[in-house]
């Protein structure tokens, strides 16, 4: 008689978790690169990623807008004053 009952190890239960993690990473990379740089023009409004980067002092380009444009638009929102 053949035993068809599966014997699962602990590592087998991590498969869905790893698959979800890989999917999330790929989705984040696509949205932060392709969509944010190719589909948003410099004449459009600021993206939420650019606002988040300004708020958290990232000092790197996270979208199609220059740092000076982002500062000019968001300085009144966050109450920062030029010295």
Name some characteristics of this structure.
83 residues, transmembrane, membrane, transmembrane helix, elongated, mainly alpha
Question: Could you characterize the architecture of this molecule?
Answer:
The structure is a single chain. This protein has 83 residues and is mainly alpha-helical. The chain has one domain (13-78). 53% of the residues lie in helices and 0% in strands. The chain contains 3 helices and no strands. The protein has helices spanning 15-38, 48-55, 67-78. Helix 2 crosses helix 3 (67-78). The longest helix has 24 residues, at 15-38. 5% of the residues are buried. The model has no long low-confidence stretch (mean pLDDT 88). It holds the Pfam family Nlp36. Keywords: Membrane, Transmembrane, Transmembrane helix. The chain crosses the membrane at residues 12-32.
Instruction: Give the overall silhouette.
Output: elongated
Structural class, by secondary structure, is mainly alpha
Kindly provide the radius of gyration, computed on alpha-carbon positions and rounded to a whole number of angstroms.
Answer: 22 Å
Strand content: under 5%
Spatial gap, N to C terminus: 84 Å
Provide the succession of SSEs: HHH
Count of individual helical segments: 3
How would a textbook summarize the main sheet?
none
Uncertain regions: pLDDT < 50 for 5+ in a row? none
Average pLDDT across residues? 88
In helices, the fraction of residues equals 40-55%
Task: Quickly count the domains.
Answer: 1
Per DSSP E runs of 2 or more residues, the count of β-strands stands at 0
